């Protein structure tokens, strides 16, 4: 195979805000299934940078730790992301290896992959809690060199940590530009080594150069 195509997960293959909304819906049902407005109230608190879980604890008595646990362990509703598996399969059909590098809790990230129906499509998955280090640690990327392909691509979104290691390792780094919904801001004024070599507005644009 001539290329290894490695993706970030949050705000690349799936929007983190959609995971948050899915979790909030599940928590709202658990906390007060009779209150149809609780979900919107939680979003209002979040958007106003209030501590959502502390507010729920104060109003309903559920502990912050219990709420965090449900947030991290729930299986999200990602029905709107049917196109992700089709995208990955296109790369497989082109003869590419595909991989994932993501930071976070193992159960949380694996539940996202299962909800997307893509866990089994990857040739290699690196999740920080399982692997023992987070981006931008080069080891999280170097492990893909065992696939021994000519070219390596990393597609992510976070200019603070996604592109530093692949740039240093000679990979081709690609940034999916923020459509206004990302959790983390993108800073293109950083040193060049932190910045992607290419930018795209849609993942399907990858097929124009891979």
Q: What this model shows, in words?
A:
This protein has a 6-stranded parallel β-sheet. It has helices spanning 16-31, 38-47, 52-60, 64-73, 83-93, 106-116, 128-131, 139-142, 164-168; strands at 3-7, 97-102, 124-127, 151-156, 172-176, 198-200. Strand 2, helix 6 (106-116) and strand 3 form a beta-alpha-beta unit. The two termini are 12 Å apart. 38% of the residues lie in helices and 14% in strands. The chain has 210 residues and is of the alpha/beta class. The mean pLDDT is 96.
The main sheet orders its strands as 3-2-1-4-5-6
Rg result: 18 Å
Shape by Cα distribution: elongated
Low-confidence stretches: none
Q: How much helical structure, as a percent, in the residues?
A: 25-40%
The span between the termini is 12 Å
Main sheet summary: 6 strands, parallel
Q: Roughly what is the average pLDDT, rounded to an integer?
A: 96
Helical stretch count? 9
Q: How much strand content do the residues show?
A: 5-15%
Helix and strand pattern = EHHHHHEHEHHEHEE
Structural class: alpha/beta
What's the total count of β strands? 6
């Amino acid at each position: 195979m001539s290329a290894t195509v490695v993706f970030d997960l949050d705000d690349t293959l799936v929007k983190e805000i959609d995971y948050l909304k899915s979790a909030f819906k599940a928590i709202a049902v658990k906390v007060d299934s009779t209150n149809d407005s609780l979900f919107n109230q939680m979003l209002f608190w979040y958007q106003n940078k209030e501590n959502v879980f502390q507010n729920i604890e104060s109003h309903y008595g559920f502990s912050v730790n219990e709420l965090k646990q449900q947030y991290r362990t729930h299986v999200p509703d990602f029905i709107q992301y049917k196109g992700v598996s089709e995208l990955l399969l296109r790369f497989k059909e082109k003869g590419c290896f595909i991989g994932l590098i993501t930071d976070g809790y193992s159960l949380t990230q694996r539940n996202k992959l299962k909800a997307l129906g893509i866990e089994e499509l990857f040739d290699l998955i690196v999740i920080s809690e399982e692997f023992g280090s987070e981006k931008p640690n080069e080891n999280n990327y170097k492990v893909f060199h065992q696939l021994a392909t000519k070219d390596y691509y990393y597609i992510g979104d976070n200019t603070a940590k996604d592109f530093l290691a692949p740039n240093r390792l000679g990979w081709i780094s690609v940034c999916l530009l923020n459509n206004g919904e990302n959790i983390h801001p993108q800073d293109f004024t950083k040193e060049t080594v932190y910045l992607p070599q290419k930018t795209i507005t849609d993942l399907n644009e990858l097929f124009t150069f891979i």
